[in-house]
TrEMBL record:
Cofactor(s) recorded in Swiss-Prot or TrEMBL: FAD
Residues noted as binding NAD(+) in the record, renumbered to the chain: G181, A182, G183, V184, I185, G186, V187, E188, E204, G269
InterPro entries xref list: Class-I_Pyr_Nuc-Dis_Oxidored, FAD/NAD-bd_sf, FAD/NAD-binding_dom, FAD/NAD-linked_Rdtase_dimer_sf, Pyr_nuc-diS_OxRdtase, Pyr_nucl-diS_OxRdtase_dimer
UniProt organism field: Kaistia hirudinis
Family that this chain belongs to: Belongs to the class-I pyridine nucleotide-disulfide oxidoreductase family.
GO MF annotations in UniProt: dihydrolipoyl dehydrogenase (NADH) activity; flavin adenine dinucleotide binding; NAD(P)+ transhydrogenase (Si-specific) activity
Listed name of the protein: Soluble pyridine nucleotide transhydrogenase
Domain called Pyridine nucleotide-disulphide oxidoreductase dimerisation: residue spans: 346-451
EC number: 1.6.1.1
Amino acid sequence: MNEFDMIVIGSGPSGRRAAVQAAKLGKSVLVVEKGRRVGGVSVHTGTIPSKTLRETVLNLSGWRERGFYGRAYRVKQDIGADDLIVRLRKTLDHEVEVLEHQFNRNAVKTANGEARFVGPHEIEVVAENGETRIFHAAHVLIACGTRPFRPDYVPFDGTSVFDSDEIIELPQLPRSLAVIGAGVIGVEYATIFSALDVSVTLIEPRDSFLDFIDKELIDEFMHELRDRNMRLRFGAAVTSIEAKEGGGVTTTLADGRVVASEMLLFAAGRVGATDRLNLGAVGIATDHRGRIVVDPKTLQTSAPHIYAAGDVIGFPSLASTSMEQGRLAACHAFGLAPPPPPEFFPYGIYSVPEISTVGMTEEEVRKREIPYECGIARFRETSRGHIMGLNTGMMKMIFSTRSRRLLGVHIVGEGATELIHIGQAVLNLKGTIDYFIENTFNYPTLAEAYKIAGLDAWNRMARG
C-alpha cells in the first residue's frame, strides 16, 4: 500500500497535472499535500483567490460601467470585507471539489501531511495529528510551490501589516493602503484596491517595474494609475516600517519620504517552500530564495529520479506554464516524449487594467537588430470599446519589415488576457501581417483591435 510509481509533493498546478498525467499512463500515484485541502497555493492563497477578489471588486464597485456613468458610480455603495470573502469561499470550494473529483476519477491517492525525504526513494509524511508514515516511489516530483518572503524588519501582525497570502482575509477594507513591491503580485493587489477607491501608494526600491513588459505598455499603464490618483514611490528603499498601537502604519523611505497608511501589504518576492523537505538527504541544493535548479528540458534535479516543477523552480512562475512543466516531468519520468513546447507562451497580469503579452518586446527586437514596424490600436477606437464605455486600453503589435511576420503582441486594458490568445496562435504558427489585414473579425468586438493595429503597421511599412 505504501509503494508508488510516483510521489508528488504538492497539489498546485504542476503537481495536479503531473499526477493526472502519470495516472493516465497507468502508473500508481500519491499526492502529498500539507494543507487540509488539495489545491496548493494556487487555489487557496494565490492565483484563484486574487483573481476572484479582482472580479468581485470590479462587479461590486461598478468599475466597468464608470466610463458611462461617472467615477462615483457604484453597484453597491458600502462594500465590506465580507462581501469579498463570500464569493471567494464559494469559488475555492468549487475548485477543490473539481480537483478532488479529478483525482478520484484517475485513481490518484492523496495523503495529508508534511513531506520530507528520508532516503533517495523514501518520503516521510507527518500528519497534523503527529501520525507518521513512510512511502516509497521510483520517481518523485517536488511541486511544493512558494510562500511569501517575510523579512525580519517587517512587523507582520495580520491586522494592519500583511503578506500576500494574508491579504485575502483582511478583517476590513482600509481607507488607505501602502504596497511594498511592484512585482506582479504587488501591482495586482495595488490596482484591485485602487478600484475600490482605496487610497493606494505603491512602493518599489528600483526605478522601474515589470521590466519584462514592453516599455510603451508600461508607460500607458503608469499613466492610467496616476490618472486615478495612485501614488507611485519608486527609486528608494524602505528603511523602516512602524505599526502604531492605535492603528495605522508609517513607512519611511531612504530618500526621506514618509508614507502613512491604514494598512500595509508587503509583496516583495516569494521563497521556495523547500526548507522542511530535508533535501540534503538526496543531495539537492537550493538557491538563496529556496528555489531548485532543474534541467529545463526534462525538469530533472541533480538527482535524476527526482523532478521539480512550478514556482519552486523560479521564472516564469505562472499557473499555465507550471501545468505544462508538471505534465512534461511525468512524461519524461515514464519514458514518454511529449511534443516540444511552443516557442512563445502568453504572460498575463491580472491588474486593473489587465496586462498581457506574448512574443518579443520592442526593446528585444531592437536589441536583436531586426528591422521592424509597430501598429497601435486604442480600444476606444473600436465600436465595442465605445459600447463598453472604455476610455483607455491599447494593443501594440510588432512585425518584421523583412519577413512581415508577427514578432510580438502587447495589450493593456479590458480583456487583455483573453485577447492575447489570437496573437499567440498567429505567432506560434509563424503568421504574418497579412492574416490581420485579410481576415474578418466579429463586429463589434475588442478583437477588432487586431485589424486596426495590423492596418496601422501596414500603413507605416515601406512597400515597393
